[in-house]
Amino acid sequence: MEVYLLKNIINYNNVSYSYPNADEEVLKNIDLNIKEAKFTVIMGPTGAGKTTLVSCLNGLIPQLFEGKLTGEITVAGQNISNFRVQTLVKYIGLVLQDAETQIFGRTVEEDTAFGPRNFSIPKEEISNRVDEALSRVRLDGYKKRNTGELSGGEKQRLAIAGVLAMMPKILVLDEPTSELDPIGRMEIYTTIDDLRKENRLTLIGIEHSSQEIIDKADELIVINNCSVVWQGEPKLLFRDIEKLNSFCIKPIPVSIIGWSLYKKGLIEYDQIPLDIDEAELIIRRLFTDRKAMFTGCSIDLMASTTLTDDRPILQIKDVDYHYSSGKLALKKINLDINQGEFIALIGQNGAGKTTLAKHLNGLLKPTAGQVIINKKNSKDFELAQLAKEVGYVFQNPDHQIFCVTVEKEIEYGLKNAGFSAQEIKERTERVLELTSLTKFRNAHPFSLGKGERQMIAVASILAIEPKILVVDEPTTGLDWNGINRMMELIKTLHKNGTTIIMITHDMDIVAKYAERIIVMKAGQVLMDGRTREVFSEFQQLKSAYVMPPQIPLLSLRLKDLGMKDIALDEQELTTAILESLEG
């Protein structure tokens, strides 16, 4: 198969697809063209058909995943049905959403070299490709690291490196940065954009975040209800907040502020900002024209009515942890966590966040130091007893789903925890209703989408009613509606007195929901403080590979206009702007 230079390198012509034994199509009459050497992003709700669409591109559908595929797909003018997957993968690289399914090597070096070795590429060239690919994804120095010891984000970068080492002409990325820290996401897309420009690489990305791709994507395709509902330049869509919400696409935070100003008649539609620079310029013009100054930020989301008190429910005292390889993962961790707090645990990939969290429910034992839960050493708890104190929802929900129906999955943990049959029944019914899973009670978990599986994992833990809930990246891979559903559930639990410890790379979520932030760097606690205070320390956060969200950053830029405290989300800042302009 040879790839020629064409204006449209990929063409879908009336393509429809249904899975085996399925009544409904997951792709319906798809007609679209993708231009060569451009970055095309595909967005839309979870379950809309985005992954299915790109899986048709390299022959995975229908050669590995059978079903009924109709229509025609051409790459560089050639019908891909004439080529086997083994041929197509040389030209079309696919990075899957779940990185672990793409990792085969024992070490980072072995895994990155896996693809090229399968095509008899000379050893010296493989070595050069491995070095270059690892450098581009910030895994220099990891060559001999055991892949089983990598964090979720590091595994995602490794999966990207493995595909880059194949040097494909077309690179397809299915949410490739969903588990990366903010600076890591920026670096990955910057790297890929450089590759595209240098090597005429055609890039196709599936993304949920408008903010990530607004200044990088050449074209946007929106899939909804298994069909293409929008195609064009991203900027033409991202100003329309109502349409984005209807597509379950998360708007850019500063654009939400601009939309409010537009609705108030203060700016024109085409003035709605798409980045922080545009937002600052618009706000300064408004304040200058009206000779206004900020009167303060009148909404304080952190003034909550939760049951926080000063009694530590959890204490971490001088905790060290070494991996079996001898690598120091945690060093002298000292923390007090009070009853009823909502804490965000943040930091770059590999900083030690998940390793620390696994010490809280006994999945890991400290090499040195103590974890005290309700004044009792965690080592002295029976496993079932500890589960009633600390619930842990894994980053990947599929790691904690074992049963054939949703109902049985929720019952499973309750049975292991020793609850009576009557209590199991009552708790199961209660949590099915709380998580809106009642209609799926008899469904097989793996027949449902990522959002539902994430909710099942949460439900199975909630049924035990732990005093402390640890959620590791609870919104990864969810669309805008799914994110809101998940976070509102967690917010409700917090209001009812549950202590929440949330690991996340989504700083907008941290700003909106967390009361306290613990920042980790290289296995140590770098910062620990109230959300507003931590997000004010831009340089310290940057040193930990954490980028504050747009709204706090914008607030810091507006201090000379009288902004005393930073706003944490668009509602706070919009209210402050409108009150100041009208006052």
Structural notes for this entry:
The protein is α/β, with parallel strands linked by helices. It has 3 domains: 8-245, P-loop containing nucleotide triphosphate hydrolases (Rossmann fold); 253-291 and 565-582; 340-364 and 381-548, P-loop containing nucleotide triphosphate hydrolases (Rossmann fold, 3-Layer(aba) Sandwich), CATH 3.40.50. Helices cover 37% and strands 21% of the residues. The protein contains 23 helices and 20 strands. Strands 6-7-8-3-9-10 form a 6-stranded mixed β-sheet. A 6-stranded mixed β-sheet has the order 16-17-18-13-19-20. The chain has a 4-stranded antiparallel β-sheet with strand order 2-1-4-5, with no helix packed on it.
Low-confidence stretches: 1-5, 298-307
Task: Estimate the helix proportion, in percent.
Answer: 25-40%
What is the 3D shape?
A: globular
Strand content: 15-25%
Structural key phrases:
6-stranded mixed beta sheet, 23 helices, 583 residues, Rossmann fold, single chain, 37% helix, alpha/beta
